[in-house]
């Protein structure tokens, strides 16, 4: 009779199976009206082992996303018929699918608008294809890991009038619901679970966005700024979500 596998071996086997599932081919919708860039994006994403569907305008993007239900969307901002901002805003009301926005414009306000309406990440053209693929991989791993995690504890976290209910994906401040984008909620929930601990921008990218490389840390700053607008009495002089000079951020209370 063969010996029973140890619990340690079983745990590692299950973890390996989950990791395989997380890294399996995903269905990705790429929305871009520049046909040359669209072809390049499709070629490179397919090389990574994913299934790619495409759209060249905002209206087609909405229709395709609703019909095909992709696991991730790469979405250009400047599109015919409907802008990428409008597409993102509409889709975010219907689904939590990860959205990576692309733009040729460099104005910071565009980036802030994209993140505020619910985009998970943002890249400015021209960009490194290697970095784009790395971000896609990180977003897919993050989404896959979230699905594989056991149910969250039902007991909300409370700190200084702030209540984070991860099981219901709800945040309250002094009993009033906060309107947060998916990534704002993830960031606030992580900092609440780890209150009083200082995290660098790179650590937050790793823990909240799932990036395991030196990505664009400006994304973290934008989300911190918007969270302060929603949870601080005076966002210009934050007392809850504070900056530790030369290190990063922490939540206190």
Mean pLDDT: 82
- Per DSSP, the total helix count is 9
Number of strands: 11
Main sheet properties: 5 strands, parallel
Given as residue ranges, the uncertain stretches (5+ residues, pLDDT < 50) are 5-22
Structural class: alpha/beta
Distance between the termini: 58 Å
Question: Helix fraction?
Answer: 40-55%
Radius of gyration: 19 Å
Name the shape in a single word: elongated
Instruction: Spell out the helices and strands N to C.
Output: HEHEHEHEHEHEEEEHHHEE
Describe the strand arrangement of the main beta sheet, using strand numbers: 2-1-3-4-5
What portion of the residues fall into strands of 2 or more residues?
15-25%
Short summary of the structure?
The chain is of the alpha/beta class. The protein is built from nine helices and eleven strands.
Characterization of this structure:
By secondary structure, this protein is an alpha/beta fold. Helices cover 45% and strands 18% of the residues. It contains nine helices and eleven strands. It has helices spanning 7-22, 35-47, 58-68, 84-94, 108-116, 129-148, 182-193, 201-209, 218-231, and strands at 27-31, 51-55, 72-76, 99-103, 121-124, 157-159, 162-165, 170-173, 176-177, 241-244, 248-251. The protein has a five-stranded parallel β-sheet with strand order 2-1-3-4-5, sandwiched between helices. A four-stranded antiparallel β-sheet has the order 6-7-8-9, covered by helices on one side. A two-stranded antiparallel ribbon has the order 10-11. The longest helix is centred in the middle third of the chain and has 20 residues, at 129-148. The chain is elongated and about 50 Å long. Mean pLDDT is 82; it is low at 5-22.
């Amino acid at each position: 009779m063969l010996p029973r596998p140890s619990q340690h071996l079983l745990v590692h086997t299950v973890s390996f199976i989950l990791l395989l599932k997380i890294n399996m081919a995903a269905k990705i919708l790429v929305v871009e009206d520049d046909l040359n860039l669209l072809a390049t994006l499709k070629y490179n994403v397919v090389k990574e082992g994913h299934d790619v569907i495409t759209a060249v305008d905002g209206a087609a993007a909405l229709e395709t996303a609703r019909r095909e239900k992709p696991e991730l969307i790469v979405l250009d901002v400047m599109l015919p018929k409907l802008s990428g901002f409008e597409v993102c805003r509409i889709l975010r009301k219907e689904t939590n699918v990860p959205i990576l926005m692309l733009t040729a414009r460099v104005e910071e306000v565009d980036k802030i608008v994209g993140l505020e309406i619910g985009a998970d990440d943002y890249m400015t053209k021209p960009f490194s294809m290697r970095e784009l693929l790395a971000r896609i991989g990180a977003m897919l791993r993050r989404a896959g890991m979230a699905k594989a995690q056991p149910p969250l504890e039902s007991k909300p976290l409370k700190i200084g009038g702030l209540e984070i209910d991860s099981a219901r994906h709800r945040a309250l401040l002094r009993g009033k619901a906060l309107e947060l984008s998916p990534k704002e909620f993830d960031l606030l929930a992580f900092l609440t679970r780890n209150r009083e601990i200082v995290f660098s921008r790179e650590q937050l990218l790793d823990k909240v966005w799932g990036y395991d490389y030196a990505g664009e840390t400006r994304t973290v700053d934008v989300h911190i700024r918007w969270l302060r607008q929603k949870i601080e009495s005076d966002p210009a002089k934050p007392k809850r979500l504070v900056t530790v000079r030369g290190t990063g951020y922490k939540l206190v209370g």
